[in-house]
Amino acid sequence: MTTGVGSYEWRFDSGRVCLDLVATGEPAPKGFDDEPRGDDAGLLGRWLTGSGLVPRGTPLTGVDTGWVQRFAELRDCVGQLVRAEIDGRQAAAALERVNAVAAGAPPGIRAVREPGGGLVRTLSDEPECGALLAVVARDTVDLLTDPVARARLRQCEGDNCRRVYLDTSRGRRRRWCSSEVCGNRERVARHRRRAAVARA
């Protein structure tokens, strides 16, 4: 799933919301930063909606640079943890921080009727930063304590890409975070290399 954000484009194809958060720190698209500037609060708000943490149409008037810093801190801790798992290392400080955030209560949810009669999910109260962080931290704990899911963690093999994703492909042979993005870049690069050799 891809969501346009002005000149930015978020991808929600990592397989878990915690991994999608880690992807916001990658250089393309530029994510919200732990040193907030410009529209970082707006970017975070759009990511929260695009990721499904906050239902579409929910007012996000409380999102500010403090939220951005807290989400960026959690993003960095989750990134350290999942990459440490892939590499067979430990990241004790990051684990301690994720566990502390996961101890918070997630937001309450409700089902309400739309004008057309269907039920939609809403939050019980105004979105609160700590509660939303708790959802991401709990997703991280669920991922890392599930041996099957943990064994599917991969880092993209694309040049200049550090995205982490769950490999759910048949045979567990997926090499790129996205066949359409990094996979296509690799195919184009291979074609150019072959063409250059043929011209030589």
Residue share in helices?
Answer: 40-55%
Rounded Rg: 19 Å
Structural category: alpha+beta
Strand content: 5-15%
The gross shape turns out to be globular
Organism: Streptomyces niveus
Domain Zinc finger CGNR: 152-194
Protein name: ABATE domain-containing protein
Topology:
Elements: E1 2-5, E2 8-11, H1 17-23, H2 40-50, H3 65-87, H4 92-102, E3 109-113, E4 119-123, H5 129-144, H6 147-151, E5 153-155, E6 164-166, H7 179-199
Antiparallel strand pairs: 1-2, 3-4, 5-6
Describe this structure in words.
It is a single chain. The chain is α+β, with helices and mostly antiparallel strands and 200 residues long. Helices cover 47% and strands 12% of the residues. It contains seven helices and six strands; from the N terminus they run ββααααββααββα. The protein starts with a strand and ends with a helix. Mean pLDDT is 86; it is low at 1-8.
Describe this structure in a few short sentences.
This protein is an alpha+beta fold and 200 residues long. It has helices spanning 17-23, 40-50, 65-87, 92-102, 129-144, 147-151, 179-199, and strands at 2-5, 8-11, 109-113, 119-123, 153-155, 164-166. The termini are far apart.
Provide key terms for this protein.
200 residues, alpha+beta, two-stranded antiparallel sheet, globular, disordered N terminus, Znf_CGNR
